[in-house]
Amino acid sequence: MRTDVSWVTTEQLLAMPDDGVDRELIHGELRENATTKRNRFHTRTVSRLTYILERWLDTKLAF
User: What are the residue boundaries of the structural domains of the chain, listed by start?
Assistant: First the structure.
């Protein structure tokens, strides 16, 4: 459960540095998540899963 709540404006969010932290502003609440680093294995796995899902979807939507 989160207890650290930071209230910021849109202008403050846009003025923040691009330091690799993924920031979202939801109803004035700043939410931060560290961006994960991806490697070749991760990219290849995502690519293969996407290909498999696309082929499966094509069979379901074939007219």
Answer: 6-60
